[in-house]
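User: Last request for today: this protein with iron/sulfur cluster, please.
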Amino acid sequence: MHILLVRFSSMGDVVLQTATINWLRAFFGKDLSLTFLTSEEFVSLIDHHEGVQKVIGFNRRSGESWKDLTKKIDLLHEENPIDLILDLHATLRSFRLRCSYWTIPALTVDKRRWERFLLTKIKITAFKKLFNANIFGLTFQVERILNDFEAIFGDNRAVRRTQEFRRGPHQELTSLEKLEAYSVEGPYIVLAPSASFFYKRWPIQSFVTLAQTLLEKTTQKVVILAGKDDDFCQEFNKINNPRLINLQGKTNLKESMAILSRSSLSIGNDSGMNHIAEAYGVPCVTLFGPTDPRFGFAPHGNKSVTLSKELYCKPCSTTGKKECYRDRHYCMEMISPQEVLSSALKILEIP
Ligand code: SF4
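Assistant: Here's the final one, the structure of the complex with iron/sulfur cluster:
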C-alpha cells in the first residue's frame, strides 16, 4: 500500500500530521509505504520521521512550477505506484493535484471550514456568554481527522492521537555542536515570539518583560528562537544577563527542533514552534490572539496551558491574517506578562 500524503503548509499543520502518520502505520502495518508531499521549507520537519519513506518538497517560492512538481510525482508513481492520495490540505492547490491524478483513488479531509467560518463571523463567544454553552463544540483538529479515518477504514483507537516526534540521530548530527557553541545546555525555557502573521504575535515588549522576570524567578536559561526576518527580537538584547541566549536568525529548522526537544518549557504564540515542542512532549504556554483555541489547534499536553481572552471581536479571522480593526490589539495586549509567568512557574513547579 503506497499512500501519498499531501500537506503543503503551514509549519504547525505539517507537525500535526505526524499523528496521521502514526495512525496509518498502526492501521496498515509494515506493508505501508508513505510519501509526504509538502512545501520545501518544511521538508526538514518530516524527513527524519521513521514512518515516512520519502518526502517530496515543492519549492514554489524559488520558482518551481506545477509541471516540475508533477514530474516528481510521475517519477514516484513509476517507481512505486501510488494506491491512494490522502489530501490533508484540502485547498484548491491540492484539489488540482488530485484532478491531475484522477485515476488514483483519493480521500480529502473535512477541515470544518463552515464551523470555523461561523465561529469567526457570528462570534460564538458572544453566544456562549448568552447561553452558557459552546454551540459547536469544536475539538482537537487531529482527533476529528482520525475519527473520520476510523469511520472509513475501521477502529484504531489504541494509537496515540497527537503529534509526535522522537529525538534521534537526525538532530544529533547537525545540532549538538550548535547547542554547545551557543551554550544551550542545562535547563532552559524557550521563548518563540514569532508567528506567521503580525496580529498573532504577543507584543514584543511583553515577551521582553516575561524574559526578564523568568530570569529573576528561575535559575533556568531563556533561549529565544525566531527566524532570520524576525528582527524585532533584537529587543531582547537590551536584557543584560548571560542566561539570556538570543538565537534569532541563528538556527535552521532542524536545530530549532533539537533545542525545543530539550527544553523544559516553550512559551509562544499560536504558531508552529509550540506544536513542535508538544510533539516532543515538552509542555507549552500558548497565547491566542485573533484566532481561537476552539478552531482545534490548542495545545493538549497534560501540563500545557492556553491563554486566550474572551472579546466580542474574537476570533476575527480563521488564520490570524486579517488586519485588526479595533483601535488597539486588545486580544494580545490583555494577556499580561504576569499571567504568562504564573502559568510558566506552575508548569515548572516553582512556588
Ligand atoms: S483585538 Fe479583536 S479585531 Fe483586533 S486582532 Fe484581536 S480579535 Fe481581531
